[in-house]
Structure prediction request, 103 residues.
Amino acid sequence: MLARTPAPPSPSQPGPADLVAYAAALPAVASAVGAELRDFAAERLKAQGERIRAWSSIRSPLDFIDIELRFAAETLGAYADEAMHLQEVARTAAEVVAPSSRG
Prediction:
């Protein structure tokens, strides 16, 4: 019977050195992402204030629906943009602390 040799680790599998680098990068990533989330929360609070201010101009139920639908659409767009931005921030912070050795 032939003995099986373990397959060499594929390039996509992180090795022990990668795991140590990732662990070292976690505090920097958490700090960068946390700062961005605080900024985003401030922006969302400002948007909520503008929404409430817009309620003062409501003259009909259609005005209310228009204001709410605009706010919902802008909010969804803002959250989608922020999700993409947070990925970039996390990736950049991780690369600064632990540069990739895989080219």
